[in-house]
Amino acid sequence: MESRTFILKHKLPIARVEKYWKGLEEGKVYGTVCKICGAKYYPPQVDCSKCYNSEVEWVEISGEGTIECFTQLHSFPQGFEFVGRPYTIAIAKFGDFKVMGWYEGDIPKVGEKVKIKTGKDETGVWKVYFEPWGELNEHRL
Amino acid sequence: MRVGIIGVGCSKFGVRDDVTLQELAFEAVKEAIEDAGISKEDIEMSVVGTAGTRSYELMPAVPINEYCGFTGKGPIRVEAACATGSAAVYTAYSTIKSGIADVVIAIGVEKMNEVDTPTSLAVGGRSGSYLWEFHQYGTTFPGYYAMHASAHMARYGTTEKQLAMVAVKNHRNAAKNPKAQFQKEITLEKALSSRYVAYPLRLFDCSAITDGSAAAILASEEKIKELGLKDQAVWIEGIGYSSDTANLSKRIDYVGLKATVEASRMAYKMAKIDDPVKQLDVAALHDCFTIAEIMAYEDLGFCKKGEGGKFIENGDSDFGGKIPVNTFGGLKAKGHPLGATGVGMVYEIVKQLRGEAGELQVDLKNYKGLTHNIGGTGHFGWVFILGV
C-alpha cells in the first residue's frame, strides 16, 4: 500500500550570499576572497574556513575557462523533469576558481575553452551557463 | 587490545518490497547472531547505520533496534552516505576500544525502492552540496561519477570498454552469489550497447537501486577468549578514514578520490601493509560505478595512477589475478543498499578469510583482506584491513 503524501519544501537562507544571487541576475558570477588570509571560495562563502575570519571581498569570475570534467544526464532527478532533454553539467576552471555550470552544447571535451554567463531556467532559478568559444575550440587541448 | 569480528550476516539484496526496514534488518541480525554462536543477550550495544531519506521511516534506528530486540542497548545511529555501513563498523570498533562495551553489533540497512527512480536520483543529487549543485544544476550520483569518468578518460585514455569490463567481471562473480541482486552474467557487448544514464556512463556502468541489510558482531579480544570464539574471529588490523569537500568545484582534480588515498595510507600504516597487492588476498572495493573501481585500484596503490584501465583489462583484479576484487559481485551486481554496503563488504571479507566463500573462495596466502567504502564521490572514505 501507499504511505500518506508528505511534501518537503525548504526555505533557503541566502541572506549572507545575496550578492551572488543578485550578481547572477546582472550577468555576473562572484566568488569570494578572504581579506585576511587570501583563501578563495567558489561557491562563495563569507566565513573563511581556513583562518576563521569573516571579512571577504567579492570578486567577479570572468574570462576564458577550461572544462575539467563534465557529464550529460539522460536519467533525470525529481525536480528537473521540466528540462525535457538531456542536459550537460560541467566544471570549468577560471584562474583560481572552479565553477559548475550548464554547458550550452551537446558533448563538450575536457580541455575545451568556454565563456561564463548567467541565465535562468524555466523554473526561474538563476545559474551559470558555459558557452563554447566557437572557433577557439579548434584548438581544443 | 584487539577487536575481532565474531559473527556476520547478510540479507538477500535486491528489490525487497516483501519486507519492512525492520524486518529486513532482522534477517541480517539473526544470521550474524547464529553465525557468532552467541546469545542475543551477550550483545551490549547496537549501532544502526542507515542513510535514510528514501524510506518512509524517517528516524529508523529505534524502530529497527526495537524489532531486533535491542531496546535499551543503544542504538547509535550513524550516517555517512554510501559509506554509512563502514561508519557503523567503526563506531562499534571504537565503542569496544574505549572500554564502554565488549560486544557490539553493527547493523547496516537500507530500503531504497520505497520511492521511485526520479526521487531516488534526486536524493543522490541533493547529497552533494544542495544549494550550489543540485538546486541549480540538477546533479545526480551517476552524474558525479560520470564527471570523474570524463576526466579519467581524457587524461589517461581509459576506455568505455575498460569500464564495461569491470561490470562484466562483477556480474560474473554475482552470478555465483545467491544473495546478489543480479545473479546473471552479462556480455561486454550488452554492457557497451546499454543506454547512457549519465554520459559517459551507461546503464551497466551503474549499480542499481537496492534494498538490503548486513550485520557484524564485534568483540574485544578478552571477551572473544572468554566466549571461546578465538578460532572464528577475524581481526580488524587496520582502519583508515578521510573525507573531501562537499562541493566538487573545490576538488583538486577529478581523476581519483583523495579520501581513498588518505584512508588507505592510514589503514596500511596501522596494519603494516607496504605492498597491498602482495600482502592482501582479496579486496571489496567501492564500485558504485565502474569508474569508481578503476580509480580505487589506483588510489589504493594496487597499480600506478592512470593504469586502472589496464589493471582490469589484464585480469589483475579477477580470480587468479594479482588481487581478486569484488568476489561477491560488488556494488555493481551484488547491489548497493547504502547503509548495508560497508557492513556487507566486511561480511564478504570475513567469509573469504574463514574459507567459507564456496564457489567464490579465493586462495588464501596471507589471510588478509581489505574493504574500501566511499560515501558520495569521496565525500567520505573508509578502508579496513581484516586478518586472521
From TrEMBL, chain A:
Ranges where the ChsH2 rubredoxin-like zinc ribbon domain occurs: 21-57
Q: Where is the ChsH2 C-terminal OB-fold domain?
A: 58-117
| Transmembrane regions listed in the UniProt entry | none
Q: Under which name does UniProt file this protein? A: DUF35 domain-containing protein
A Pfam family that the UniProt record links to this protein: zf-ChsH2
Organism, scientific name: Ferroglobus placidus (strain DSM 10642 / AEDII12DO)
Q: What InterPro entries does this protein's entry cite?
A: ChsH2_C, ChsH2_Znr, NA-bd_OB-fold, Thioester_dehydratase-like
From TrEMBL, chain B:
Alphabetized UniProt keyword annotations: Acyltransferase, Isoprene biosynthesis, Transferase
Q: Name one GO biological process term.
A: isoprenoid biosynthetic process
Give the matching InterPro entries.
Answer: Thiolase (IPR002155), Thiolase-like (IPR016039), Thiolase_C_2 (IPR055140), Thiolase_N (IPR020616)
Question: Which is a Pfam family this sequence falls into?
Answer: Thiolase_N
E.C. numbers: 2.3.1.176
- Could you tell me which residue ranges the Thiolase C-terminal domain spans? 240-387
Q: Give the Thiolase N-terminal domain ranges.
A: 12-222
Q: State if Acyltransferase is listed as a keyword.
A: yes
Gene3D superfamilies referenced in this protein's UniProt entry, alphabetically: 3.40.47.10
Q: Does the keyword Secreted apply?
A: no
- Which NCBIfam families does its entry note? PRK06064.1, PRK12578.1
Q: Indicate what this protein is called per its UniProt record.
A: Propanoyl-CoA C-acyltransferase
Species of origin: Ferroglobus placidus (strain DSM 10642 / AEDII12DO)
